Write a sequence for this structure.
């Protein structure tokens, strides 16, 4: 499985601001790009996901932007809240994901009140 | 909640001892996975299963073996634990063809 590169490693945002996390991938066979959210002591949980036939997907305050030609995708959290403080992982898979997801190394997000 | 139970949730063991972690699911998902999570490395795939008795290696499979004798159970075994296997281990399941993984709450293993 090829690498998914995620940045930044950590991020501090003021309450009400926009949090932006970026990922880049190498394998052009990837066709599913999810973001997972993880709170301390818990397992990761799916937050939002996109497939490469669209350039953007929005669910509430969370938006994925996808740039197929640049092989990059990003998570935007609008109106960031202290409850959004967590670790976020981007990931990618191919062909239905039977052989699992390849994850980025994670971003530790802190939203300051 | 995908009905995934991992056991034990915490374990401390000594170098050289065998360790088995168990993952039990109640959702009848076909696919099951074992990941390890380490600071600075994210989540890395150890082994996965695509059906009863059907398993394959992931990115970091050395030193680990798995078995799946029933749809609901997926076991991860460290035949002879080493300090480098100190980690948090996550089991995950997936419905066929969706790509979405559901994770358990993790098993923290410390090898002294």
């Amino acid at each position: 499985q090829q690498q998914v590169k995620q940045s930044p490693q950590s991020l501090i945002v003021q309450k009400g601001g926009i949090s932006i996390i970026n990922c880049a991938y190498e394998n052009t066979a990837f066709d599913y790009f999810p973001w997972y959210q993880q709170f301390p002591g818990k397992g990761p949980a799916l937050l939002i996901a996109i497939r490469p036939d669209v350039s953007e997907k929005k669910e509430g305050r969370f938006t994925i932007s996808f740039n197929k030609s640049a092989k990059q995708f990003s998570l935007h959290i609008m109106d960031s809240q202290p409850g959004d403080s967590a670790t976020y992982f981007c990931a990618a898979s191919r062909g239905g994901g039977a052989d699992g997801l390849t994850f980025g190394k994670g971003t530790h997000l802190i939203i300051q009140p | 909640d995908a009905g995934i139970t991992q056991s034990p949730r915490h374990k401390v063991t000594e170098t050289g001892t065998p360790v088995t972690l168990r993952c039990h699911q109640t959702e009848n998902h076909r696919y099951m996975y074992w990941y390890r999570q380490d600071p600075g490395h994210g989540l890395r795939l150890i082994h996965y299963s695509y059906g009863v008795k059907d398993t394959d290696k992931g990115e970091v499979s050395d030193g680990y073996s798995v078995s799946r004798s029933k749809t609901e159970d997926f076991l991860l075994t460290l035949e002879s634990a080493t300090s480098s296997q100190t980690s948090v281990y996550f089991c995950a399941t997936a419905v066929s063809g969706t790509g979405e993984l559901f994770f358990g709450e993790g098993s923290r293993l410390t090898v002294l």
